[in-house]
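Input set for joint prediction.
Command: fold jointly, output tokens.
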Amino acid sequence: MAHNRIRRLPVDLGKLVALEELDLSFNSIERLPSDTLGKLVSLRELSFRGNGFSDLPIDIADLARLESLDLLQVRHQYTFFFLLQLSCFTQSQVKMLPLECARLKALEHLLVDVHSFVRPPPDVCRRGVEAMLKYLESARQANIPADGTYSLTGEGLSRTVEAAQMLSFMINATDSKQRPLPIVPGSLSVQVDVIQAPDEADETMGTSNREKGILLKCGVFQRPCL
Amino acid sequence: MHRNKLQDLPDVFENMRSLQVVDASCNSIETIAKSLWSLGTSLRQLNLERNNLSEIPGAIGSLRSVVKVVGAHIVKKNKNFFLKK
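tokens >
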């Protein structure tokens, strides 16, 4: 049903349990329903290219057979007086994949706007689908909070440190005077700083054989314009 | 029915219980005929690309056997542009 003027999807779409290919590209879909797409258990190929929504529902991660997902935005091109040509993307676009998308193990092809993507960040996106899924899996397992400071030990510690290392390339969002940029909802990323545990943490944990606690300081920042 | 000037999908599907493919792409269809939903056990492929549809009726849920709701932008045709594993 590509190239129509469809604005919303019916909940009953989820009843198409035999559906393998769904092309809804170049419509005007502003929001995807929850608990609908995830029921399309046979779906292998899905295209939402050139629509207006900016959020993917979490249940898209239930599409265990999904091999191809197209989230590319259309580039509009305007020509003025046959001389000046302007190109721009649609304003609303998907910039983040839900962490749950790490479960899309069958995914082989994924088309996103790499340059403007926030999660995973562009340098991970450029490494391909496998790197993107690995990134999402690490972030999901670490259960990194949106904001605040917390400490972990044992198995949880190693998982979190690994995730922190993966996230370490994220941009330190401060201005020229090292002040944090104001937070703008919708364009956020997580910055993780790994800090060695203070002495008090060692005392609390007791025996010297135990793994050292590490404090992770997590903050939510706006990604600066590149 | 591909590439015509149809403004409505004709209500002619009631007795076509074995119909497997409906291609009404490249028309000006604004509403889908109700009788299309009676093809729930036979229809496998539906192509309504490039029309004037503003909504998908909830009755689409009755097409239990449909495998492809296709258009030109199915991924395989654009394979080279995709990030691959």
